[in-house]
TrEMBL record:
InterPro entries: MFS_dom (IPR020846), MFS_sugar_transport-like (IPR005828), MFS_trans_sf (IPR036259), Sugar_transporter_CS (IPR005829)
Pfam families on file: Sugar_tr (PF00083)
Record-annotated membrane-spanning stretches: 12-39, 51-74, 86-107, 113-131, 152-174, 186-205, 241-261, 281-301, 308-325, 407-434, 446-468, 483-501
Protein name: Putative MFS family arabinose efflux permease
Keywords, comma-separated and alphabetical: Cell membrane, Membrane, Transmembrane, Transmembrane helix, Transport
Length: 508
């Protein structure tokens, strides 16, 4: 990477300003996904926990579904009035929506108004994110030398993963500082509230930025578009490249990206029942190890081309997903471990309810021969007028992996992150180079956000649904069924990209 060590004048300032805001927007967006398990208990009725969790994932996915509309709205503004002012607006919109999610009263307080307000704010988040990425990627690319675009734009690519990493760290610190009861009661709101401070700092940084030199030049020469939507999608020649960008690259990149990070998180926490804090820590370590490879593959794409690296990442994901997730499941499968009955411990706490009922809280910890620990909480309510009767215990289960299994799980997530860096590291430069300056913001934003927002954003919900359906049907490897969605989508994208994307478009 020595050939890119000499930075163009002012490029680091541009990258820092663009990355800071983009990182914060991704942090805001990921807080919701990272806390999906907790949010399901706060904003949705609890009669059916699985349905509540699926509803939370659907609300999370709604933010992705509207991202293409944000790409159209803000992409049009970006191509007409400029990159700088457009993604300043998206930053404020995202930050405000995230802060307000942390302020909404729970379902027990305001009923169905709670999930409705959360859904509306998620839609605002999605609209804002739909305009943010295209602006940041375009802004950096238009400051970078053409032969180094892959390297310099790859710094923007790290912000999504770093945003997720920071969200996990903030959640982990909050859980550590507060008691379990305090975090469950109000502490989960803290990561949402903190975003407003980061947004204000980023706004002050972005306010001092200048406009992209290529856009400023086009504007000075009167060559900006008066109707970016029509020129982007009404022109058959340009529309062909929009469709190729979507189905031959962004679609496959989107499902690989969300499988390697979001579905991995959900799978470990919900399917493997790994304790929440340990899940956050192992994912954070894997992300920290993998993030530098965005830069590596962005740099490499300047040398050997964007297409080959992205398609290789898709192909590896298609081949490896099922073996990886089978191993992840087996690591946490307690049926394959020997429990040490003598080391089983019970902790009992008794409290009295206002109506005179007695409430017994049990925490049971089972030690296994390989040092794995399995704990579960159960609550039994004995009614004052019917001492012999008790309600059915509510059980919360969690497994704490031993050291070796934890590092194996980190390795398996890290391998998935490598696939992510291969498909995601070069894609900003790839998309920027497909479209001319006057319609670049609009043209690149739509395929990117359809690929990521629709195909990628729907992945957690679709995958959990497919796995739940297979489990209900008694299928043996039910936990692998959700993977068919990213495997099939990535395979389609791989074939289209291999056959129909030949190289750089000759820009007019």
């Amino acid at each position: 990477m020595s050939t890119v060590t000499k930075a163009p004048k002012g490029i680091w300032k541009v990258i820092f300003a663009s990355s800071a805001g983009t990182l914060i927007e991704w942090y805001d967006f990921y807080i919701f996904g990272s806390l999906a398990v907790v949010i399901a208990t706060k904003f949705f009725p609890q009669g059916n926990p699985t349905a509540a969790f699926l509803s939370t994932l659907a609300t999370f996915a709604a933010g992705f579904v509207v991202r293409p509309f944000g790409a159209l709205v803000f992409g049009r503004l970006g191509d007409m009035i400029g990159r700088k002012y457009t993604f300043m607006l998206t930053l404020l919109l995202m930050g405000g929506a995230t802060f307000l999610i942390g302020c909404i009263p729970g379902y027990e307080t305001i009923g169905f108004l709670a999930p409705l307000l959360v859904l509306l704010l998620r839609l605002l988040q999605g609209l804002a994110l739909g305009g943010e990425y295209g602006g940041a990627a375009t802004y950096v690319a238009e400051h970078a030398p053409a032969h180094q675009r892959g390297y310099w734009t790859s710094w923007i690519q790290t912000t999504a993963t770093v945003g997720l990493f920071i969200s996990l760290i903030v959640i982990l610190i909050t859980k550590t500082v507060l008691s379990k009861e305090a975090f469950d009661l109000w502490g989960w709101r803290v990561p949402f509230w903190l975003s407003i401070l980061m947004v204000l700092v980023s706004y002050l940084i972005r306010r001092k930025m200048s406009e992209s030199p290529l856009f400023a030049k086009a504007k000075a020469e009167g060559k900006t578009s008066t109707n970016p939507l029509k020129e982007s999608f009404g022109n058959r020649y340009n529309l062909k490249f929009v469709l190729l960008a979507l189905f031959g690259a962004a679609m496959g990149q989107g499902v690989v990206w969300y499988t390697g990070q979001f579905y991995a998180l959900s799978f470990i926490q919900k399917t493997c029942n790994i304790e929440s804090a340990q899940t956050d820590s192992l994912l954070a370590i894997a992300l920290l190890m993998g993030t530098p490879f965005f830069i590596v593959f962005g740099w490499l794409s300047d040398k050997i081309g964007r297409k080959h690296i992205m398609l290789a990442g898709m192909l590896l994901a298609i081949i490896c997903y099922r073996p990886i997730y089978r191993t992840m499941y087996n690591i946490s499968d307690l049926k394959q471990k020997a429990a040490l009955v003598a080391d089983t411990k019970h902790d009992l706490k008794v409290s009295a309810a206002a109506n005179g009922d007695s409430v017994y809280h049990y925490t049971t910890v089972v030690q296994y021969s390989d040092a794995t620990r399995y704990s579960y909480d159960s609550t039994v309510v004995v009614h004052a007028d019917k001492a012999a009767e008790a309600t059915k215990p509510k059980i919360a289960k969690a497994t704490l992996l031993n050291g070796n299994d934890k590092w194996m799980m980190i390795l398996l997530v890290f391998v998935q992150v490598i696939f992510v860096t291969m498909v995601y590291g070069p894609i900003a430069a790839f998309l920027v180079e497909m479209f001319p300056v006057k319609i670049r913001y609009t043209s690149m934003s739509l395929p990117y956000h359809v690929g990521n927002g629709i195909f990628g954003g729907l992945l957690p919900t679709v995958a959990v649904y497919l796995a739940s359906k297979a489990k209900d049907a008694g299928q043996g490897d039910w936990y692998l069924e959700g993977l068919w969605y990213p495997i099939i989508i990535a395979a389609i994208s791989f074939v289209i990209g291999l056959l129909y994307i030949s190289g750089k478009r000759k820009l007019e």
